Every structure is written in C-alpha cells, then in structure tokens.
Amino acid sequence: MILWRRILDELREDGACCLVTVAASAGSAPRETGARMFVRADGSISGTIGGGTLEFEAIRWAVSGMREGRRGLALRRVSLGPDLGQCCGGRVDLALEHFTAEDIEPVRALVHAQEERGGQLAVRAAFSQEGVPLQRHVMGSFAPGRISCWKMASSRSASVWSFSRSGCSGPGMWAVQWCWRSRRFLSKSPGSTAVRSFPPAMPGNLRYVSASRPAELLKDAPDNAFILVMTHSHSLDEDIVAAALALDCFPYVGVIGSETKRARFTNRLRRRGLTVRQVGGLVCPIGAAGVKSKLPAAIAASVAVELLIKNEAVKLEGLYNQPLAQGRKPVNNAG
After folding, report:
1. What's the pTM?
2. How far is CA 264 from the centre of its chain?
3. 226-229, strands of its sheet edge to edge
C-alpha cells in the first residue's frame, strides 16, 4: 500500500494518524536518515525507525499528540544516551507529522497524484513555525535510489520546509518491522518461544508468555535453548543477558545492539560478577558477519542465517561428543 493511501484510509477510519521520519542521525543510531514509521491512533505501527527505546518513545509521543488533537509538524532532537539511557551514544532528529480529518482533502489529492505516477511521488511541504501545514506541492519525477530524504531550511517567511520522496515498492519504505519478520523466520523452528510482548495474531508454534520480570523465565528454559534478546530497554536487555550468561548452559546468547553497546555491557556484566569466559559468550551485534545494512528485512535475514549456522554447529558438536565419533565402543545399558 502506498504512503498517502495509507494515511487517507486511516484518516477516514479514525480521523488521526502520525508519520514519524528520521530527519537526521549521527553516531550509532538505529536507522538511517529517511527511515519512516506510520503510527495509528491505537498505537499500532507500520514500518520502523529501529525499535528499542527510541521507537517506544516515538510511538508514545505520536499517540499523545493524536489524543490532544495535534495537527502539523513537530521536531524532536534525541540524544540516545542522556535522553533515553541507551548505550549506543548516537543522536537522532525525529519529525513527527500529525494528520487530522482536516487533511483528508489535501491527502486525497496526493493519493491521486501518486497513483497516476505509478506509486512514485516527490512532495515538497511547507509548515509554519508552529508546525501547521501551509501547503504541499507535487514535484517532478525523481530517479530511483533512496526512498526518502529530509532537509530543513528557513524561507523568507520563516517557515520550515521539508522535501520528501515516497514510493510503494522501493526498499525500506514500508518494510515489515524487523522483529515481526524475524518471528516469521524463527517460527519455522521446532519448539516454542517465550516473548515479552507481541501482537495478538501469533503463529501456531509460538507460545506467548507475559512476565513483568522476563529474566526469571530463563530458569525454565531448556539447556539447548538459543536466547535472543530484543526489548525496548537497554537495562532490561542487560538483566536478561546477565541471567542467561550466569546460568552457563545456553549455546547462544545474543542481544540486538552495536559495538558500543557490547563494550558497555561487557563492563557492566563484569561488575555483576560474571567471569571473562561467561561475558565472552555474549553475541552483540547479532546477525551474520558482513551484513552492514540497517534495513529491517536485511537484519531479520542476517539474524536468521546466524542462528541457522549456530544451530548446525551445535548439532555437529553433539555428533562429535557421541561415543562412536570419539572412537569408543558404546556402552550397552540393556544388560
């Protein structure tokens, strides 16, 4: 579904929605400039700006604005460490554009323009200093490439201008949340998975578990379980990782994050009393080596590949530990 059609449908149904765009990013940030997330009035989303606390807070800001009847553009600069307590150390500028029923006709016009152009559309929008939308202009066609870009400048009337591109089929614009895509990959593996929170629709071979202290669930996990941690909070990530590594029985303990996050977790885990060997078992960043993309689908595929490779290695190790593989005659316990 193309961007403006999605917005129009939501305005017709609920009368409000919010488009969150990464206007700028620096340092170790979850997503690149231009990444977008569509937030509905009930807090459900399409797309992702990278998950974690940043996305958690952005959804909260978007929903709060809709409840207040806000309309127009709001800009937020977020330092991931000081503002959100994350370990990554990056900075992100977010543009939150709230749409209301007043925007239905302008959005309808953009839907028609985008459909006439086969899903590709370049739009220039002007906002007042208070963030109220003044006008939108459909620009000429643009060459394929980056799906979104965002620039801000002051005009003579002191308005804030944004330039955005949108398309219905380019990479990354409306990619499914990476954690959802990962779930689809991983749901094909046997057994069940304990998760902190998921949407109501779940694949049949997953088991939903709600817990205020998810780290405590690990004591009931089988020794051969792979532990993959992807919460919205770095402190919660740390608690779960520490508990998993301390049990010293899982072949894989991974947490989504950056090299900076790993370095800080290493120091914190050592202060918790974990040994150098235990801390060395932490996998962070997760995903197959060599994949640098931050696109959700790429991360999902990369993580799935890494887990498949690790699973094969664990199975092979198990074979080598069998008596015949070690050149010993198996013991006959039948009597």
Report:
1. 0.58
2. 21
3. 226-229, 252-255, 282-283
